[in-house]
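From the shared-data thread, chain only:
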Amino acid sequence: MYKRFTIEELKTVQNTFISNFYSILKKERCMVASDLFKKIFKEGDEIYYMYRGDFLFRFQNINNEYILMDEKQKIQVILNEETKREFQSLVKNFILKKEKITWQKSIEQILLDEFHTGQYSTIWWKNYMVYDIETDTNIENLKETKFLLAYAMHPSEGNKMTYEYIDQAGLQKFVQEMLDFDWYIVGFNSIAFDNIVSVYNVEGNEDDIKKLNEKSIDLFLFVREMTGKRLGLNKIAEALVNVSKTLSSWAEWEVLYKKYVENNDLEALEEFKKYCKNDVRMTMLVFLYFMHFKKLFIEWEEITFTIDDLINKSRNGIKETNHMVGQNIFE
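Structure, as tokens:
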């Protein structure tokens, strides 16, 4: 999954695309962008640059239209005859100035600035919340999966993001609040996992699960419906909003889990809380990205959608996903 930027977005959204492109320009000992294009496309219509086994940059020439892909930033730029000149001018200015444009904003900052204006305080004038849970390692049988803790984020007065911590003692009240909550509950793989586990842990029933699922916006299901691929939150958030999980692997998560559950390690508990809260923030930022840009790019294809698509397609396949095992949280 990638972000497709226009030349104007390259100028105004914080990124290192031009800097990374310039490093290839120097490597190939070219003075300007047009020289690089002439040189590399003599070798073929698709060129890869790698470092220590990792892809850095990819170039494609399709009918004299250049597609540039920064694999580190997950940014794609398409250059036709007109935008080639704009891009070459942008690279030239970078070479001459060799300085960061200080007024650029990160995607995260753009989204948060818009949120704080009240633009996303509701969805079609209806309230929403974002939540995520942490459980024990038994996720094969969701009826026996034990809830550990959760975080929820509510847009609140003054266009702020208010986070609520939910422990085991507070789960009953929280599930009832979700059942009573008017309209949208946003999560990632929540329809197949979080909603089910939360309800079963308070001895709820299938009707309760159905009620939560019918008001859910499940971003995992939405992306799967739009792209045909099962993508984890970490991959999506890193590609779109440049944020990632606070833990890097399942092994790290499991060590933390054992410290917390077996030894009542309060420091481990704080790390768990930090991890869960960050997942909620990641989910929220991806949700804001979808509402702002209303498009995805994957495998060279542009996929556009509406807010109604985001709401409705995020529930497609509710029946087939019920009681499925959760997504790998580190994908």
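Residues 3-104 form one domain.
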